[in-house]
């Protein structure tokens, strides 16, 4: 799958799945992850400074929500490209793969 819109394909050189993100998606995902890293460093600092537990818990909830947002964006791109293409190619095994991933995300 060499379609630049497809996020997950086969790397022909090693039969390993790789991502094929467009530049806009990569930039958005990286920016979100960078913000989450900053949030986590802030949480660590709060713990080291012995901030009030409720404040730390609120920041953890915020970081969890941000990470969940990254997951939702990536799942959306995956469904609209790779999964769609695999289903069109007759590969229904992708349904089980996506369900397994969604169930993990729901834990």
Automatic annotation (TrEMBL):
Keyword Isomerase carried by entry? no
Q: Key word DNA-binding present in the record?
A: yes
GO MF terms listed in the record are: DNA binding; metal ion binding
Keyword annotations for this protein? DNA-binding
- Please give a single GO biological process term from the UniProt record: negative regulation of DNA-templated transcription
The protein's matches in Pfam families, at most eight in alphabetical order, are given as: Trns_repr_metal (PF02583)
What PANTHER family has UniProt attached to this entry?
COPPER-SENSING TRANSCRIPTIONAL REPRESSOR RICR, TRANSCRIPTIONAL REPRESSOR FRMR-RELATED
Listed name of the protein: DNA-binding transcriptional regulator, FrmR family
Organism (species) = Desulforamulus aeronauticus DSM 10349
């Amino acid at each position: 799958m060499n379609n630049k819109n497809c996020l997950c394909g086969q790397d022909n050189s090693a039969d390993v799945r790789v991502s094929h993100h467009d530049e806009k998606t990569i930039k958005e995902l990286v920016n979100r992850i960078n913000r989450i890293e900053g949030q986590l460093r802030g949480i660590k600092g709060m713990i080291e400074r012995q901030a009030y537990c409720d404040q730390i818990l609120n920041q953890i909830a915020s970081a969890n929500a941000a990470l969940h947002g990254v997951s939702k964006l990536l799942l959306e791109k995956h469904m609209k490209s790779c999964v769609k293409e695999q289903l069109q190619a007759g590969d229904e095994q992708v349904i089980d793969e996506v369900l397994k991933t969604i169930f993990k995300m729901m834990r």
